[in-house]
Amino acid sequence: MTFSRRRVLAALAAAGGAGALTGSGTAAMFTDSEGFDSALTTGAVDLVVEYDVRSGPSAGDAGVIDGPRVTLPLDELGAEHASGSTVLTFALPQGEGYVNNPAALWLAATCPEPAATRLADALRLTLSYFDCETDAVGTAIETGTLREVADRLGGGRRIDGDGDPATAPPACLTDEVCVLVEYELVGYVGSESVDLPLYFKAEQCRHDETPTNPFEGLFTATCEGSETPCPCCRTLGKLDFEENTQPGLGDSFAAPGVYSLPQNPEYGIDIYDTATKVDGGETETTGVAFRLVRLDEHGNPTDGVVPALCNVRVKAGRGSTPYERGTDDAPTVDTAGLPGSDGDGIVYAADDKGISHVTVCICTPEPDCPGCVDPSTDKGRKDDDDNGRPGNGNNGGPKK
């Protein structure tokens, strides 16, 4: 459902306004923050802001935003909906008997709340110029994690009124400009919530004057990150490279493909590259590159959210080689994001040996952490501290 600008303005004239876009849920949401409204409304010109939820949670919802802030609909973002997008249309209403003067349009954000949530680091956000007539996506305004985008927009960002950032200085808004907001949850499992107040303001453009940033000095705090990006690194499951277990697997061999983890069959690994050798006439796999995927009841990959990898152990012979995520490393669901993998994302067994199995460990928010253990060799042992938190890194917790 898409609202035309004329239709929205007619509704405003008849009803005198409309309700604000809102969202709710346990996984993530953007919401308003009181306290800045008076500073942002003084001197503002008439501005109509429409929203159109194109995909993800609340897809099909559309309407008009009331007030100087935006709440994006991220309710129930999770296994069923890992991503979504919303188009915001900023328009200057014109009517009989009056003309709305050209205006400088500004966008700003405050830090995620609460500041320590891991969700703000797992949620990726991209704001881009958007052609509402052709649905063509234009130049990115800002992209990064939710926390990074909030930090960069804290001082306010001038939005080009023509949707063409190549113009200098930015053009004033005379009719309408559209912004596409895309959001995706990457490498997260849990039930936290996060707020990101997103504000906008338009001020009249005046001849021979440089528009003043209305957000300058308002949002000055640096958005601090979570102190524990991976509070618990625990075993999700392991894949044995054995004959007659799953199609594509043999003794110390795995062909590229999707394989379920028997201990948690709703998850699997998508092996997209391998390294091999020939030993005694038999081909053995010595390295694999894979990404963690969610599987449906038939074992097929879905678009569902998967947790971040914190440790992958490649077992060959008597020992296993760990590939661990460091405390400062970004969340990843792909071996290509783990320290020690090669340029193709491959993680190897030691001494060029054939792999017997791969153990997959993930980040979770569990208070009683069972640790990252190899079910066949560690026999339940974990190298954690007395509270079950990751120790010095040898247990699969983030490296210190």
Automatic annotation (TrEMBL):
Bias-annotated ranges (Basic and acidic residues): 376-388
Biased segments, Gly residues type: 390-400
Alphabetized InterPro entries for the sequence: TAT_signal
Record-given protein name: SipW-cognate class signal peptide
Coiled coil (UniProt feature): none
Disordered, as annotated region: 318-338, 365-400
Lineage: Archaea, Methanobacteriati, Methanobacteriota, Stenosarchaea group, Halobacteria
